[in-house]
Records
---
Amino acid sequence: MKKILQIAWREFVATVSTKAFIIGLLFMPALILVGIAVGPRLFNQRSFRVQGEVAIVDPTGLVIPELRTTLENRRTVARRLEEARDTLAQAPGSMREIAASQIAQAPAPDLRLVERPPDADVQQEKKWLITDQKDEKDAKRLALVVIHPDAVSRAEGKPAYGSYDIYVPPNLDDRADNEIQQSLRDAIINARVSARALDRDTINAIVRLPRMQSVTVSKDTERRTVGGFNVLLPIAFSVLLFLGVMTGGMSLVTSTVEEKSSRVIEVLLSAVSPMELMAGKLLGQLAVSMLTMGLYVAMGVAALASFALFGLLNPWLILYLLIFFLLTYLVFGSLLMAIGSAVNEMREAQSLMMPIIMLLIIPYMLGFPISRDPNSTFSTVISFVPPINGFAMLLRMASSAPPPWWQVWLSIGIGVASVCAAVWFTAKVFRIGLLMYGKAPDFATLIRWARAA
Amino acid sequence: MWYNGRTLMNDAILLKGVNKTFGPTPAVTDLDLAVPGGALYGFIGPNGAGKTTTIRMIMSIIFPDSGAISILGRPSALDAKDRIGYLPEERGVYRKMKVGAFLTYMARLKGVSDANLGKRIRDSLERVDLGATESKKCEELSKGMLQKVQLLAAIVHEPDLLILDEPFSGLDPVSAKLLRDLVLAEHRRGATILFSTHVMPHAEEICQSVVMIHQGRKVLDEPLSAIRSRYDPRAIQFEPLDPKADVSSLKALPGIVGVARIETGYEIRLADGTDPAAAMRSITMAVAPARIELSRPRLEDVFIRIVSGGAATAETEEHLRANLQIGAKVATV
């Protein structure tokens, strides 16, 4: 045991003291921080201003005046803020403030209407859209709008109002398209309301009913429901599991290949048995993965705590994350190590690793159907299929409808059995592969080794 | 106890009827070997003879198909790993690890829990003129320096049995001598040593006994002194003081059957039963000598004689010699 710990300690120190590891470890949190800090600036809506000309053919003669009114900056900004506040009412307090301050500063669109005769030929007008503009300073042509004659007053015998057609040049930004259509919608509705001699404000007041914040009631406490948490939590858990397994698994491959290619392996085998070496390496990289995951979990918990949302997370889930991580890591880690022991260099390992990495990616493709319908037959079956049962079961447990306990423990049992199988296979391949140089083996060779050893 | 009446306690290494095949190729066939405690054994044979396979079986890194192995009185080297030092032919280091840390790691894996380990390692590095490298990374060292570090790693735990697979391959003469001195020092300390080489002069220089294998089979296993007397060429090498001296008269001397010119003088063959000392006296009386000495059997010649059954054609002999000389040039220049 002492020797196994010695090997594990060396493996741990050798991995975590490399620059690559430290950079890799900090990369993810750094990316998230940068995303939070810089993202809003990079993808800032404020920087985009809808600006240009919109040609309009209005046979009713009622829409254009309303559109002019609608386009007045003040009203546009007011409308945007109103929408934003409705959306924001569901967000946590601190986020609400940040977002509200940004929305308030959004620039109003600058749209100039080009009135075309009511009987203009639409085909001719379309050419206006795609004619090259000589002077760059000329306003950009954004759209041609043709209002239907019955857009404001219903045609006789028809149950519905008419609408409008909109033609745009290639590569028009969808935000401009959106802005124009929003303004048109407002203008046409206003025109219809005016035509019926109704008051728009009254109608607005009647139809306005903002979505309310639901309150989650639990035994001890009541709190406002946080939308999206039930979706995000399973994703976060499977990402953590993937990261943990990949961190350890990849290091196991590289360190084993390195020991083989630097010919240090036989020196080691004079001091320890292949089983001790294997156990030590698995343990050492397990510690590396735990460090990585521990850091991310701690950051996640700290983030939840800072938004006073920690109560949303069932602490037992972290324990099960740990159990399923251990099982999944041991299966994938030992299989990857078997590959590392069989090849001569990393390039040869790539092709053998491919199917194993694919297995790790499958849970992501199945993630959505499982977390949406965690107790379907499909989800249930997948959560018993090794080696991805850990992913599937965690997704189900973190979802809004956790599975019964017997299923969880059955999945854990299957996990333990698959660990035994994977470790057995690796031990066999490891013993033969470590001293085998020359032609890179394929999977069939590995299986033959496992049988022969 | 189970091998020709020898007790397990006497022999550091005991192999009985060991066989190993890789696929259809036999690597070692029916090999018996007994290395007594405290001996310095050479394990010789050309490349591909099965030396490394045998050593790996001794180390329990691979296992024989059949036969029994006993190491330091245990049924497997796995039970005695901490008492064995091993320098494999395929040897390496952790390139990014510091020399001192590497030696400490190897010592710990060998079960050394000495509080003074750091000092011991520093001292041993000093002894091989590598005192300044303790905090250098292994990748910064030259090949010769690394070989020394690797040997130190094999002996850092003061093993009872030291197994060296081609320890001198690829070394310059100065490093080879330093390594040889280290090996001899270990032997004086009391360690049993088995070292393999395909460069026979290396074995002749330091071994007490040699085991020779060819195509997986043992062809010779005797003390060097016994080999020398058994394969005594019964010849005297003679170099006259005056290179132009007439040596034809030597043929007439009693007990001398022939005189042949060789590169460094003459080889004078003696008749069976002739006392070499008396023959040498009469030769020096007849022609003044610059140098006169008894021809000694060379392991290389012995090997060729055994393998070819004494009837090697010039072509097979040349082939066998070439096989034995690969790598020897670097080591013996």
---
Amino acid sequence: MAKIAQSRHTAVAKKLIGVADTVVTAAERRQDPMLSIPIRSLSNVTFNPRKGMIEMGRKKQARSFFNVGMAKKFMQTVLVADALEELQRANLTTSLREIYYRTKHTIKDSNENTFDTQNESDPLIEDLEVALEALREELHVRAENAGSIVGPVVFGDDGDRVDCTRLGKGGYSVPSIVEPEYLEIRTCTADFLLLVEKGTQWNRLSEDKFWRRYNCVLLTGNGQPPRGVRRLARRLHEEKKLPVYVLVDNDPWGYYIYSVVKQGSINLAFESNRMAIPKAKFIGLSSSDPDRYGLPRNVGIKLNEKDIDRAKELLDYDWFKKEAWQKEIKRMLASGLKYELDALANKDFQFLTKKYLPRKLKEKDWLD
Amino acid sequence: MPPRPEPVPAVTAAEMGARQREISVSEFFTKNRHLLGFDSPRKSLLTCVKEAVDNSLDASEEAGILPEVTVKLEPVSTNGSVAPSQATRFRVTVVDYGPGIVREQIPPIFAKLLYGSKFHRLRMSRGQQGIGISAAGMYAQLTTGKPVQIISRTGPKKPAHYFEVQIDTKKNEPRILEKKQVDWESHRGTQVTMEIEGRYQKGRASVDEYLELTSIANPHVHLVYQTPEGETKDYPRTYNQLPVPPREIKPHPYGIEFGMFLKMLHDTKSHWLSGFLAGDFSRVSSALAEEICKQAKIPPHTRPRDLHGERAEALYKTLQATKIMAPPSNCLSPIGEQAILTGLYKQIKGDFYTAVTRPTAVYRGNPFAIEAGLAFGKGPEAAAKKPEEAAPLAEGEEREEESELARVIRYANRVPLLYQQSACSTFKAVLDTNWRTYGIAQSKGALPAGPMVIFVHMASVWVPFTSESKEAIADYDEIRKEIRLALQECGRRLGGFLRRRERAKSEFRRRNIFELYIEEVAEACGRLKGGTLNVGKLKDQLQKIAMKRTGGEETDQALGKSGGPEGLPHSIIVTPEGVEGAVPLLPDGGAPAPAGDGAMGRLSEMTPPDKPAAKTPPAARHLKGSGRRAGAKPAGRKTRTRPKRKGK
């Protein structure tokens, strides 16, 4: 567990203690204790076209104690606040799962557990993040390290110099908290950053030393990129002025990953300011690529019902209203097929490194 | 080449003719005993008990005597004692304290098939055809060779007669092996003993189940059962009113087929056609009879016997086309809601009971009435029992909940039906009913799930069975519809009960939830505040808010008892605190005293006056017989000594 600077503790700890104050004050006044928590759903986000990102609205949800439907959640929220405050006091960071275990116990005189699964505690931590306007890092909660980076960039991590050109094919494992206090970007000489959806393609590019040839940073989040990866991309983009390109599968989920990187996610809309990269470009796979690169139809996969529904949802999102995007998505729906990045191997194992990306970059064939 | 078989000499018509001969009913049923319910040894044992008990009950009721029947099963072994479950031979003894049988009628009743008083009358009774008891005797004769032994006495001043009889199967006539006067401790009644091949096994469709079910539908009967294991089970009388004696009715024109009509034309005592129509059918008045004759263009003064062929058919068709009132319903004697409730309450543990008697309806010209009942739940004992101290669950673990299906108990004219459940109209109606509407789980095409017993009874002058062994009611649309309506009414009441209980439960849960969580929330707040908070005070404050929010004392009331079963007629609700509703008074004082004023009012109005007979301990009654006391009840009827213990 990393030691952290002492400076902001009191502020966050105060906010957490405020939860207890809410309960005490309400009880004094013989009122139902109530926490108001901003709503984290599509209904409470708006797309700000000027900033090019998703922002959270003002809608809040009252979580009160004396309501059968909410009582347990209220109790759980207080327990989580207690655990988070304990972290502040002890000056430790921990994982979501450890918070789950820390707060789990059997309620006195009953068979009922405070929490039955981690799925119950995770959203409460996000609730508190939003309600208290505290970042997850400030709450001392980290996620799993779930990303890798390789390329001409040098970090300072806990006083160690990490040169990402000298870490073999494996690269540097992106930590969950990448704020400047924790991770310093010392130098970066790359020309652009390529964010790859899947580890497989990242490995291919890393193994082929694509980054050396095209002087770029290769980053992957193994699927939907976690906060650390998104935040790091944003910092490299902002601090080192690296253009960001996103390479994902050609399916609705791939499109959405790109949009999360670019405009932010619905669930973490309050973090868009720190995470979104409105200038990120979508480099592929595009629904026009199979034609252009001669991918045979038989390496496509038929869209299932869920895919189709999701694609239709995307068509309705404000941030997909650009004509090029409507065309892109409708083209996929019309073909009825989706393509994985892996399908490029059908032409050649190194097709991605040697043909596909060079041509894309040369033709500046990307979507904004 | 193999040698060709010798050609079989052809048979001449004369030779064939010589082989033709009459078959007696007895011979027929000897070969086809499965038609009468004697297929397996286990079922045969049940059928013998059933026939004897049904006869005893019919006879006692018709004579206006509250029935009292003792059933005794003894394993018989040729070499030493044998365990009841291993025995293959049993001695079945059934004793009643009913009207008895006059001497000369004893042999034909027990040793002549199709001899009885019930077949020719349209009157609701357990037996219908006059096959039952003699068939049982025939089965005894067939499997063990032993005769049927009968002792009967018609009154305290009359002698008791002892008979040993067998059937001459060729002639379908009784053969008397022994007859004498004996001393008998009973003042009145009949005792039958048969030795038969059988198997005794408890459980579904056993003698035990049959007697238990009989006791449910006949709470006015006192049953004593001595099991093959030597145990004595007592099913006390919990309802002291004899069923209203059903009236005998004339057939309704709509229920008569043409062949039957011709036979009636031939047999009638009327001299004129119009007289025949008005006199031999129900709901045909003299005026209507004249009208029918006119319509059929047959003079009303024709002699019925002279009517043949086309003219008879024309009259029959006119009769069927004429609008005639539905048959009278006073020929039926339904069990009654209160009696069903009493029977269910006595025999089945539960939390909720209800019963419905439908008005009389008609199928094929036969009046019938459907009654349904429900017993739901596991009883207050199960509810009061503390649930096992379950360990807190780990992630991914779940508590298992048992799911049993409802049990359907079926009756026709108060007789339990134990076989062929799925062929029975009642069972189909139970499946037809949408129990989910009433808050009971039910998978598609299956019985409803839950701790529930569903009672269905059909009372009719003629119950349409699917076979001679009387195991399932035929599936007439009219019958199925009536059953469904009765079940739906029961279901509605059950739904009302369940909703009420659920309301109280959810209030309780609400309170509980808050109490549980207040502890957690207050402790966490205490930790957050770093020990500067008075946790006890916070808990108290939160408790007070919780009280206010969950309705305070109102909830306490909902959790306890809030009056009688509101809007649930003919129902009983049992809670660990007591019983509400139309609770019967059990003679042994076994019923908990009802609580609540509302329930009291209902109670006094529905519980029959306690008869002295009920207070007599069963053992004492046993010796003296209960005839006189109970016989006093239907004052207007004379006790008939004519035999009427016959039949299926």
